[in-house]
Amino acid sequence: MSIGWLTEITGDLRMEFLQWIQGLKILVDIHISRWINVTAQNLKCCTIHTFCDTNKEAYAAVIFLRLEEEGSVKLSLLAVKSRIAPLKDSIIPRLELLATLVGARLTHSAVEVLHWKETKCYYWSYSTIVLAWISGEENWSVFVRNRVQEIRKLTSPLEWNNEAGELNPADLPPKGCTATLLLSLRWWDGPHWLTEPLDFSHHENIYSEDLVE
User: Fold this and answer.
1) pLDDT digits (tens, 9 = 90+) for 82-132
2) pLDDT tens column, 161-202
3) How many angstroms separate the CA atoms of 146 and 123, rounded?
4) Which of 19, 86, 106, 143 has the maximum number of C-beta atoms within 10 A of its C-beta?
5) What strand order describes the sheet that includes 160-162?
6) Could you give phi then psi for residue 54, rounded to 5 degrees?
7) Which of 133-137's residues contact partners 24+ apart within 8 Å by CB, and which partners?
8) Is the CB of residue 141 less than 8 Å from the CB of residue 21?
9) Which residues touch 133 (CB under 8 Å, ≥6 apart)?
10) DSSP string spanning the chain?
11) In sequence order, what are the residues at sequence separation of 6 or more whose Cβ sits closer than 8 angstroms to the Cβ of residue 127?
12) Distance, CA of 19 to CA of 179 (rounded, Å)
C-alpha cells in the first residue's frame, strides 16, 4: 500500500487491526502441555506425523506425536513452522513444494534433537503434484529438482501420503483465523481422525498409480 512506517493507518485496515489486537486477549485461555509422556519403554508405541499445506499467502508444516498404548491414543503437538509466501512467483505447486521441504527439515531437526531416529515417520500432503515430484525421477526444473533432492535426503518417498486438505491440520496456519475460532477449534489437539486406528486404505501412498500416472 506504499504506507510509510510512521503513517497512521485508517479506514477498514485500522478496524481490522484493532479487532486483531482485542482478540489477542483470548490467547491467555489456550494451554498447550509441554509434557508428552514419552519414555524409553513406550517410545516404540509412538509415530510422528508431519502435515504440510499452503495457500497464496503462506505455507506451513506441523508435527504431531501419536502415542498408542493400552487401547488409547494420545496426540501431542511437537512443532509447527509457517512462512510468508514470496511476493513474486507464488505459484501454488511451488509453494506446496516449499511446505513439504519445511516439513522434512522440521521433522529431521526434531528427530535429531530428541534422538528418536528409530521412530516411524509419516508425512501428509494433499498436493498430488508435489507427491509425484518426490516419487519421480524425471528431469524437473532446477527449482523443483534441488528441493526434491533435499526432501529425499531427509525422508523416504515411501513415508509420504496424500491427505485431503480439509483433514490436514497444516491448513490452518496459512489461512489464519481469529483467536476465538482458534480456541473453539482446539487445533493443537490434532486431527480427530489421527486418534482412530490408522487405516491406510483410506489414504493414498506416494507410489499409488493414481498419483504417478
Assistant:
1) 999 988 877 999 999 999 999 999 999 999 999 999 999 999 999 999 999
2) 998 767 789 999 999 888 999 999 999 999 999 998 876 555
3) 19
4) 106
5) 72-84, 58-69, 46-54, 120-125, 160-162, 204-205
6) -160, 165
7) 133/97, 134/100, 134/160, 134/206, 135/160, 135/206, 135/207, 135/211, 135/212, 136/212
8) no
9) 97, 140, 144, 148
10) ----TTSPP-HHHHHHHHHHHHHGGGGGG----S-----TTTGGGEEEEEEEEE-SSEEEEEEEEEEEETTEEEEEEEEEEEEEPPSS---HHHHHHHHHHHHHHHHHHHHHHHT-TTSEEEEEES-HHHHHHHH--S---HHHHHHHHHHHHHS-GGGEEE--GGG-GGGHHHH---HHHHHHHTGGG--GGGGSPP-GGGSEETT-HHHH-
11) 52, 93, 96, 97, 100
12) 10
Amino acid 14 reads R
Amino acid identity of 208? S
pTM of model > 0.85:
yes
- Cell 504417478 belongs to 212
Residues 79, 151 contacting (CB under 8 angstroms): no
